Amino acid sequence: METSAENARPTFYTVREAAQIMRCNPSTLYRAIREGAFPAVRVRTRYVVPAAAVDKLANEASTSGGCVDVAQMAAEHRTAQEIARLTGGAR
């Protein structure tokens, strides 16, 4: 996990780092990413996970007080992106 400053948080995590933070198996996270159920950026053959996605997941879980469906969050995000694309960015 490399950062530009000594104590700064990274913008992206490796899948292994994100899985460790979320206390899940990296293969589970890889599977969710490939199924489109968890946000990630693909750089050639490698995936990186936005730190903001991990933070959002943690915030959702703590504010809802229940189980968070990441696949539903990803689907809502994709729907919002598609609406923005179809409307030229207007909401």
TrEMBL record:
Pfam families, per database record: HTH_17 (PF12728)
Record-annotated Helix-turn-helix domain positions: 12-60
Keywords: DNA-binding
Example of a GO MF term: DNA binding
NCBIfam families from the UniProt entry: excise (TIGR01764)
Name used for this protein in its record: DNA-binding protein
